[in-house]
Amino acid sequence: MKVLKFGGTSLGDAGRMKNVAEIVSRQGRVVVVLSAIAGTTDSLVKIAEAYKHGELNQVKSIVEVLLKHYQRYVDNLFEQESNKQTAMTFVESQFAELVEANIETATSAIEFHILAKGEVISTELFALYCEENGLNAKLLYSLDFLRLTQENSPDEAYLSEHLNRILTGHENTDIFVAQGFICRNAFGEVSNLKRGGSDYSASLFGAAINAQEVQIWTDIDGMHNNDPRFVKNTTPIRELSFDEAAELAYFGAKILHPSSIKPARRKNIPVRLLNTLQPDATGTLISSESNNANIKAVAAKSGITAIKIRSSEMLQAPGFLRRVFEVFELYHTSIDVITTSEVAVSVTIDDTTYLESIVKTLNEFGNVDVDENLSIICVVGDFVAESTGIASRVIRALEAFPIRMISYGGSAHNITLLISEDVRVKALQALHEGLFDV
Ligand code: ASP
Ligand code: MG
Asked: Which of 35, 83, 394, 436 can pair with 78 through a Cys bridge, CB separation 3.0 to 4.6 Å?
């Protein structure tokens, strides 16, 4: 069995949803994971904000716009009048409690409850469309099998048990349709896997059922070797290892949710990135194999803060780094890049929620400098195969840019550099010219 995930833009209008059904119908027995229709989750975020502040007029006016949008969508999607009506009645029922301001759930869960509606609606419409077109589909409810542990990570044992039981209970079903993104928390309330989390759902479902393959369908032909928004002549990467893909997803390639590689990698399930607009194009295959292509791709991540701790105490003092890292652990802040010298250590973080407390605590160890508005540039590839010359090619390409940190050798497939945010785009372009044949 395969798991196929389609993002919001792949469902952007009724024609595109029909196209998704066409793609799905050619793949045998599958689990289809859908995001909300493009734009819906953003609107729901606004609705949740307004709802929490008691701005009911605001809620009503956003809902009105959404309802108009869905009316058009539904009119174009279905042939039969009765299905148009069933679909619209369902959509309206989802929004009724919002405009009437009578959501029956804990205040803390209201936002999650509202955000879940996007995926609930897209899957309902898709399942009904399959039915109208004679496809043998069954709508599942992800809240029945995806829940978080007390530590807020997906409960994979629970998922595997419940999802497999449902699938074996419906042996004659070809297409299972499930919501991406949404789940329950450890207390049973509606929750989610954070924005963009549908990829993660798909990978979790794939791992839970030992899928043959997980396909992530978007509207670009796979992961590119540089950011196509800023750099001309980027090309799709045919093959990536799980590690390379994880680095790229984490450090900026927007096409894939960073956590989504983990479950698939653990079960060694290949992940294919495909394009709904060109269903027959090769896309990118992510698997345990790595083809020795040296430098494969470049990505950048903005909004980085660097913290340098200088201390004479550090000189030959075992345990100094542990004490530094413990400060970050204490404040639930993860470190991305680290470089050290004998008397100083520099680290980067992207979450500055606890920056002030972190700096205050670190001040007890030595001098602390904080640099903001930085970008991480990540160069990814298979660097064991060609052991010479890689770092020099990267540094040569960036010769005109001041580099704040360089990290090389942490793994065999990335070089990470820290530069000022102001030169991020220029640095990406310079690397593209210097590293790839363009
Ligand atoms: N609909 C959710 C979002 O917009 C989840 C997803 O698209 O993956 O973030
Ligand atoms: Mg998405």
From this structure: 83
